[in-house]
Amino acid sequence: MSEILMPNHTNNLGRALGGSVLHWMDICGAIASRRFARRQVVTASMDHVDFLAPITLGDVVTVEGYVFETGRASMDVRVTVRAERPAADERRDTATSFFTFVALDDEETPTPVPTLDCPDERQRALRDRALEQRSRRRRDLAEG
């Protein structure tokens, strides 16, 4: 999904509010998991968020998410945020995190999701990269 960073999503320095970025990340992750499960989903958790670079007023913001692991009723989604200044042909990674969503049935109780299938090398590489990054991040946080 894409947005243009407008004044109502900025702080007094003209940079993106962290809460706005988190909101966009949550929505993007929900869309990815909802498409995967073909059901309504809810956010179960969000790992530590790394804000890597600022997003400035007028930047085009692209938020991407994909399911990289599944449980019985849950899906883990890697979400990345990039900012772009089209006039300067400049792009930069600005934030990343891992979310877990749970699929719901019509009674709003957790329901099974499809098994993740990565039929081609590109999809397997994305999955493996996300698994390694999440594992490394959790290990780094545990070590303090």
TrEMBL record:
Residues 119-144 have a biased composition (Basic and acidic residues). Residues 108-144 are annotated as: Disordered. GO terms for cellular component: cytosol. Keywords: Hydrolase. GO terms for biological process: acyl-CoA metabolic process; fatty acid catabolic process. InterPro entries: Cytosol_ACT, HOTDOG_ACOT, HotDog_dom_sf, Thioestr_dom. Residues 1-107 form the HotDog ACOT-type domain. The keyword Transcription regulation does not apply. CDD domains: BFIT_BACH. SUPFAM superfamilies: Thioesterase/thiol ester dehydrase-isomerase (SSF54637). Gene3D superfamilies: Hotdog Thioesterase. It holds the Pfam family 4HBT. One of its GO terms (molecular function) is long-chain fatty acyl-CoA hydrolase activity. This is Acyl-CoA thioesterase. The lineage of its organism: Archaea, Methanobacteriati, Methanobacteriota, Stenosarchaea group, Halobacteria.
